[in-house]
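Ticket #4471: structure output looks truncated?

Reporter: J.K.
Steps to reproduce: submitted the chain below (389 residues) through the standard prediction queue, then opened the result file.
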Amino acid sequence: MKILFLVYHGFSEHSGISKKIHYQVKGLRQNGHDVRLCHYGFDDRGHRCRFVDGQVIEDYGSGPLAAARQRTSYGCIGDYCRREGIEMVYARCFQNASPWLIHLFRRLRHLGIRAVTEIPTYPYDNEFSSSSDWSMRLDLWLDKRCRHALYRQMDAVVTFSDEERIFGQRTIRISNGVDFDSIPLHRFGGEGLEVSGEQPLHLIGVAEVHFWHGFDRLIAGMGEYYRSGGTRDIVFHIVGGVHPNYMQDIAQAPGFQTLIDRYGLAGKVVFHGTLFGSQLDDVFNQSQFAIGSLARHRSGITVIKTLKNREYATRGMPFIYSEQDSDFDGQPYVLKAPADESPIDIQRIIDFLAHFSMKPEEIRKTVEHLAWKIQMQRVVTAVADISKL
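Returned output as attached by the reporter:
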């Protein structure tokens, strides 16, 4: 099948989202599909352009007018699909429903081209409604008014939730996947997971950090552990482009530095910044336990299949999270945190690891069915079944 994978933004080599998109494309191609990747970005002259596999299909120029045009002019996408015989468009939601996108997908529908849009997190309104960025609030306002009309032009919405309908449209429910070729097996100390009650306990949380990750709950939990007489040396490694002062001035959670100062945790919370490759692997292999999302409830989400949970399991690490995730709820290498604002119970993590014996290879084996090749083919198969209705 000829598929256009449509992204409304550009890419960064350090972005987990960018990597995920490329892995999804790889998964579709592994199933034998002819996949073209369409995205927006800048050329060498600084012109705003829309690309397909690196080739410009429309040059919007530069300046404010070009910025406006790229948000309203999608005709080049429809022209490309018609010219190249595209059979299906897989778009990734950017909270950007608009009259212009409605027009594009209505045209694709008239051309007989199947279309789905992936909504990475649902519901997502609370992630943006409290933003101080007026343009983001304006985008959300327009999205709310156009989303139902947009998704009527789709065959389905792809979701990582358990919702059967989103914005009035049927859903195709899949899991976030993993690319096994890109994720090495965890080797704590070079020999796999071996934790004694004497050595320091290193925790790792990897994310493009937002308030819904709830890392402040983990920091507060460390403080309460020491305040109640705990003596184990605990170190929390935060990997991602985040500053210690993050969340100092937002309503959803206390700032990291505020908690570090309050509990005297200087030196016990390490901000690594963005890492990748061997540098990232080194921090993982220094750590015994991973931290997933601990506050999805702050953005109104209770059920989600996050990418990070899957990456931790693929590495073969035990981890903690607070949302509902049917792929991992009940797994012996998972510790569930309550979905509230309480500090994380560090002693509970210590006790969990004291009796934990699964090897990284055993954990990794439990997620083989989450390979992107398998998850993306589920979408194609479901769209084919819908077309028969």
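Triage note (M.O.): checked the attachment and the full token line is present. Residues 134-151 form the longest helix (18 residues).
Status: closed, working as intended.
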